[in-house]
């Protein structure tokens, strides 16, 4: 059964959603037959690749964005941090940076081709939210990619080219076609969609339902027309 | 797009349905992206493999089965023959035999593995309805299989073993799961089913509809729950 998760690497709820999906999958009887693919979604495609915001400015940006005081913005981050902590995640918004994630998504497609996509997704999310990764920085991206098992030479040649740009764009085109406006967004067997970091039990319920329906009987078309057919040892005339 | 057709080689409407499907496919814009598989369906699994009924007895069998006089039964066959003739088929019920088709279906699965399944299906149907093939006879089956491009040694080793028996049974299990009680039965993309030798325009309509729907947006599950998500540059809290 195929599961696709649209996600960005600068999306805190995407990392929380990753943990919740992993918890759901751990409880899913047919987990060995689930094929997971991470799909690209840029929350801010216009973000400047050259500027990862500096340490400690995450809360200021948030305050400005929501028109709140810094203490109020910090309270919002604290709440988010507590939800993440409940999933075993250590969100360090004091270190967190932002930036353009297009190249990170290109590397996730390289990792998909090399069979280590989930490993890289985990390391990118962890580097971003726990270790203050400058997500647009090629040297930092390469270090994370190699730690996920990718070949350094290949990683650098991808970063220095536009390889996998088409794959990133294709994921984003598909997201629009699916009406996906925010992430994380889970798609099970191209059939069911789950928007947001839902609790594991709800994700498990969708996996279970999709599994039960994975091979439906075809809908009969034109049956009323009574096409000429043979049944058992006799044929209509 | 995947098309599966459940069919038997002693099923006159299946051969008519094959021609009608071919006519529909010829008109289908995306025919190059259609992958056709013939699926096994035995109309009479209990038929004796050792006895193919002798020449000329088809009409007697039909008369006995329907409790009609031989002339009335012949009239039924004449009607069927006319329908077949309209599809360019020459049905020779005066030559037609019956028999157990299990081994013919095993060879169709060998042909599937070798990429010549449609060629063999055509030759088996033609041999049965135009040339009086004794469908259970290994020598006659081998001759037809080789004429379809299969290797004679491999064909004989399959006939002398139970190779592909599981594949035939699996098709029949799937047919029951799909509620298929008669053939031909067309299944498009595991989604739409067409029962009987429907006119080409109806088969084309189903191909067209399935193609248009081949990549539907996923049904949103639990959307009302409002899972934590990030959208554009902001995240829910």
Description:
The structure is a homodimer of 237-residue chains. Chain A has 237 residues and is of the alpha+beta class. Chain A contains nine helices and seven strands, in the order βαβαααααααββαβββ. Chain A has helices spanning 12-27, 58-66, 70-86, 102-114, 117-130, 138-147, 152-159, 165-177, 200-212, and strands at residues 2-7, 35-40, 185-188, 192-195, 219-221, 230-231, 234-235. A four-stranded mixed sheet of chain A has the order 2-1-3-4, with helices on both faces. The first copy, chain A, has a two-stranded antiparallel ribbon with strand order 6-7. In chain A, a hairpin with a 2-residue loop joins β6 (230-231) and β7. In chain A, α1 (12-27) crosses α5 and α2 (58-66) crosses α3. The model of chain A has no long low-confidence stretch (mean pLDDT 92). β4 of chain A pairs parallel with β5 of chain B.
Shape of chain A: globular
Average pLDDT of chain A works out at 92
Could you give the order of strands across the largest sheet of chain A?
Answer: 2-1-3-4
Q: Label the structural class of chain A.
A: alpha+beta
Radius of gyration of chain A, taken over Cα atoms and rounded to an integer in Å: 22 Å
Query: How large is the share of residues in beta strands of chain A?
Result: 5-15%
Largest sheet, strands/sense/barrel of chain A: 4 strands, mixed
The largest contact between protein chains, plus residue counts on each side, is:
A-B, 59 and 59 residues
Oligomer: homodimer
Poorly predicted tracts of residues of chain A: none
Number of helices of chain A: 9
Give the end-to-end Cα distance of chain A, rounded to a whole number of Å.
Answer: 43 Å
In helices, the fraction of residues of chain A equals 40-55%
Order of helices and strands of chain A: EHEHHHHHHHEEHEEE
């Amino acid at each position: 059964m195929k599961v696709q998760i649209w996600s960005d690497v600068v999306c805190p709820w995407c990392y929380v959603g990753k943990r919740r999906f992993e918890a759901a999958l751990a409880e899913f009887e047919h987990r060995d037959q689930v094929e997971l693919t991470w799909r690209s979604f840029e929350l801010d495609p216009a973000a400047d690749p050259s500027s990862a915001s500096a340490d400690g400015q995450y809360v200021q940006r948030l305050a400005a964005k929501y028109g709140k005081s810094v203490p109020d913005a910090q309270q919002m981050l604290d709440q988010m941090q507590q939800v993440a902590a409940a999933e075993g995640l250590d969100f360090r918004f004091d270190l967190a940076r932002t930036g353009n994630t297009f190249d990170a998504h290109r590397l996730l497609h390289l990792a998909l081709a090399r069979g280590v996509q989930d490993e890289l997704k985990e390391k990118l999310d962890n580097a971003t939210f726990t270790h203050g990764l400058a997500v647009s920085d090629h040297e930092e991206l390469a270090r994370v990619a190699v730690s996920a098992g990718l070949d350094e030479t290949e990683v650098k040649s991808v970063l220095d080219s536009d390889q996998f740009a088409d794959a990133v764009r294709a994921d984003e085109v598909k997201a629009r076609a699916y009406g996906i406006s925010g992430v994380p967004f889970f798609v099970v067997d191209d059939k069911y969609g789950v928007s947001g970091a839902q609790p594991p039990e709800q994700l498990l319920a969708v996996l279970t339902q999709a599994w039960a329906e994975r091979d439906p009987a075809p809908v009969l078309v034109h049956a009323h027309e009574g096409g000429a057919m043979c049944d058992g040892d006799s044929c209509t005339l």
